[in-house]
Specification:
The complex is a heterodimer of chains A (about 270) and B (about 240). By secondary structure, chain A is mainly α. In chain A, about 70% of the residues lie in helices and about 0% in strands. In chain A, helix 10 packs across helix 11.
Chain lengths: ~270, ~240
Amino acid sequence: MKTSEIPLTPVPLTSELAEAMLQRQIKKHHVAIMLLHWFNAFVWLFELLTGLALITSPLFRVVPEWYVSIVEGAFGSRANMLQFHIALGVAWIVVFLVYGVFGVRTYLSQEVLKKEVALDHDDFRWLVVRTLRILGRSDEPLPPQGIYNAGQKLFAFVIYAMIPVVMLTGVVMAFRLFSPAIVGWAVVLHFAAVGVVVSGLMVHVYMGAVFPEEKPAFFSMITGNVHELFAYSHHFKWWREMKLEEREWDEQHDAAAAPPPEGPPESVGPPR
Amino acid sequence: MARYAMVTDLRKCVACHACTAACNVAWGVPPGHARTHVHVTPLAGTFPNLSSSPYVAQCNHCEHPPCVEPCPSGATFQGEDGVVRVDKGVCIGCGYCVTACPYEARFISPADRKVDKCDFCTPRIARGELPACVTTCTANAKHFGDLEDPTSEVYRMVFAEGARRIESGTIAVGPNVYYLGKPEHLDLVAASFPPRPPRLLAAGKTWRSLVKPLVVAAVAATFLGQSVAFFSQLWNGEKDFED
């Protein structure tokens, strides 16, 4: 699609154009984000496996007793299991702190908050249409989305709200800070916050790994790239923005290259 | 397997606190705390017929220990020998067991901020020694042994001499620490230091009655929603997104 004809809303594509867009890869995630994502997934998997087995009291336990025995047996003792849970949790916190220190300026900029975090009118509409479409109750096209769709944004809100709770209560329990009464409440909050995250995590995993329409998003967490057609059809606002930037870059470039009209300039590269 | 028990002869006890001192030294119990507590009941009766009795309180290693169930991490457990122990490697110091104990035998140690209590000197009995309080008792009032061994001292005291448990009508969890004494003295001890009902902390109550059902419901509801979506996906067939 030529940069001169960037539509305001998604328009039907010709098959040649769609084919061309299918071939063109667009970078969606940095390597740092992908590493963090899979590290995070690894941590959650093992923290959940051990965490469930750590709650052994029949009053609070949510897994059968044989599960507790299996995990305990795998670690040799319950104390080892707790040590592992704490060590991995601390490593997780440290990695996120390092990431936060280096990423805070990038990720807390006004622009990013507005485009990638805040929900707009299209997002609310998207949530309704998405649900109806999954249930087979609607054929309405999905409203255009930014780099993250409304579902991803909602999941992010759940995560942002709950992760600090999980981390803080975990540290309070691991090092038995403040008073026994606070530790007693930390156990409850830790469990509650993880419960909320797991509810969202199930949707996240389903959408990423099972749901057919989001397959390119799943692979983008491995390769970092999505093809342009996916960006166009699932993240139209993001696609449009990239195109506008591209056009701007082209125009500046054309203007600069205008005096010597012969041939294209040598330094041709993507705008981002 | 053994069934360990302790018998304290209150007729001999002189309330000298040597048991507490020996225990504190043996296990490095932090100042201000103790695993045994020597009490003396208030005076009862009218002058000149007054009576009073000493009483040594400690973990009773109950048959049905109310402290085990509320321990979230399973740090508190009952061994096959009946001794209720704390796995310090698993304790997180939440204090749920402290309020559950009817005999106030548990405390959170300021040394490691984990729960601490009498464990019948587990390392000593593993070596074949007697608990520190028993060997130290100046009046030879404390006796320790195996209730399943009919030749043991404690067996004789419990089954022949009528050593009894300090229980109340409502709180009877089967303590394995028995007391010998005149019946009126033992009644006085039971009346002065009755076991209290086990309490679950507000945090534990909230967890059990509110948070756990909510979390289970939320995860189950999400799972159901996913299942609906998944089967509708199978039903409608997968569409490649190029369409």
